[in-house]
Design brief:
The chain is α/β, with parallel strands linked by helices. Helices cover 33% and strands 23% of the residues. It folds into two domains: 204 residues, 3-Layer(aba) Sandwich (Rossmann fold), CATH 3.40.50.300; 126 residues, Roll (2,3-Dihydroxybiphenyl 1,2-Dioxygenase, domain 1).
Amino acid sequence: MGQAYRLPADMNSWAAKIRAGDSRALARAVTGVENRDPRALEVLRELAPHAGHARIVGITGAPGAGKSTLVDAMAAAIRKQGKTVGIIAVDPTSPLTGGSILGDRIRMQRHHGDPGVFIRSMATRGASGGVAHATENLARLMDAAGKDYVLIETVGVGQSEVKIAGLARVTVVVLAPGMGDDVQALKAGLMEIADVFVVNKADLPGAERAESEVRTALRLGPQGRPEPPILRTVATEGAGIEELIEAVSAVAGHARPKPARKRQTRIDHLGIAVDKIDDALGLYENLGLRAAHRETVEAEKVNVAMLPAGDSRIELLEAASPDSPISRFLAKRGPGLHHVALRVPDLAAAVERLRASGARLLHEPRRGAGGHLYVFVHPASAGGVLMELIEESES
């Protein structure tokens, strides 16, 4: 079984270390947030009041436009200004490990050892739209850690990458000479979300034509919005990068706040009762799932192992004592699905609606691991399956 990473037990101390610039503490928090470890999410909540300082910039566009090289050059220019930067490089998911392929981080090795640059590659884990589900939380974490800029580089899958516009304060769409057909294909998606356009590789033939095609596509699109600036860069030489950062800063100073993300009910995890967690883990590891967090929940007398699975999790439950509810469940039904957990936007409202409908709740909402509120709904009211409702939070 793979060794789960160890995290500080003192939340306040952990958050303080991150605010003080401890890169190792930040790296552990990033891993925890990506794996939805309750302790890391609690640290994120503690740090939330310190967020809002960073300029969060999305770098998107079609493959081959040189996004990684552009981000690398932007980071170098930002550091010359004496400012700090966090980079989130969203890579395709590796078919072998389930993690990120790490191509972007390899291309940014010149920043290794610079404490003012924090780079994190993360896998999409099946998420569409060019970004992973945890990207927003990671950006908030780096913001709260005191980074002046957070650069988010998307996978590069074309028109479907519009989700980055909802995360970033400024969205930069990167194109390159010779992409005329791509410009036309993208105008219904990326062309409409750009705050800044960049024609990268501008030293190649066709740069002027590419810029002209962008302007034509913009004129054919929705009217009534200011025309985004179109800049030319040669990222490999650093040409045009300072002008790009100036344009990003100018747009950020006038950008409207992004609309709040609409929260919806979704599956948080599936709880599966097992005789021994260590014995059960083998199957899941063969499927590419690994325990990111293990703990004992004393109130429930249960040992828990959390296995991230895309935007949800598998929660393996092992009895911690003979009088544990899990012991009784195993004695009656044997190993199997114990409960389904749903994350709801407003737990109090959900509870009120359930009670009005006559649903049977097993207890009043109470605090669980990581500080979240939860309540269990009796199987008799949930189609024969024990249902857990968890309060949605900003993290």
